[in-house]
Amino acid sequence: MTSFLPITLFARAVAGECGDVKALIPTNIGPHDFQSTPKDILSIGKADVFFINGLGMENFLDRLISSAASTTLSVVDTSVGIKTISTDISNADSYSDPNPHIWLDPIRAISQVETIKDALVDLNPACSEVYTSNALAYVDNLLALHAEILSKLEPYQGKSFIAYHDFAPYFAERYQLKAEYLVDLPDINPSPADLQRVSNLVRDSDLKALLTEPQDGSNSFNSLARDLNIKIALFNPIETISQDFVYDESLYFDLMRDNLSNLLLSLGG
């Protein structure tokens, strides 16, 4: 079992036909909005291993896992051993520290994939060759993605971009950019001070677009872009996707390349 979308994508890619991977959170619901049901507790109780992102993205899980009362379930935190970045927030009670969005950095995502592979090999050694082969192929694709992003963003190193909420510090650090944001969490309404701060950032830069996201309530963000006479472009944090999507191993890479394209638009590329 997995917690939410990026961990599901990584686990399914590694497990292949040698594992039955199910996500706890429906793909159209983000971990910030998840409401569990008794059926979820039963599903957790039947799982052999539960892969999570960690870093506070799944704080609701402790109660569910305790209720499942499984004596065999192994919980694997895919963030263990990954260098983190502190969350720069004003509302510290509602968010975790460090920032949890490690999957948006392809290099840190490699560590998550390898942690999943190691856990599956321990759980089911008979399929170790399949898990290892699948993980190597996925890591190769992550390295190719990283090289592509690095090449295309290199001319913009040191530049700033503005996203709706604080999801991009790892991506920004990896490619030597500066990530600014309107609000800490996607379900927080921006204050007048937030809007003024972002307005000042845009006026002091050459930005061509603000980066919104698919699951936010960013009417104020869109209005601000119109007021500033710049565009709105999408940067998908890959926390959700439509409920009827059909799993495709290329999804993470397709969304990240879409993010790259829109980020280049924002930076004037």
Structure, explained:
The chain is mainly alpha-helical and 269 residues long. It is 43% helix and 10% strand. It contains nine helices and six strands; from the N terminus they run ααβαβααβαβαβαβα. It has a two-stranded parallel ribbon with strand order 1-2. β5 (209-212), α8 and β6 (231-234) form a beta-alpha-beta unit. It is globular.
List keywords for this structure.
two-stranded parallel sheet, 269 residues, 9 helices, mainly alpha
* Largest beta-sheet characterization: 2 strands, parallel
Rounded to the nearest angstrom, the distance between the terminal CA atoms is 40 Å
Rg measurement, Å:
19 Å
Sheet-strand content, in percent, reads 5-15%
Uncertain parts: none
Write out the strand line-up for the largest beta sheet, numbering strands in chain order: 1-2
Topology summary:
Elements: H1 5-15, H2 38-46, E1 49-52, H3 61-68, E2 74-77, H4 106-123, H5 128-153, E3 160-165, H6 169-174, E4 178-183, H7 192-203, E5 209-212, H8 219-228, E6 231-234, H9 251-267
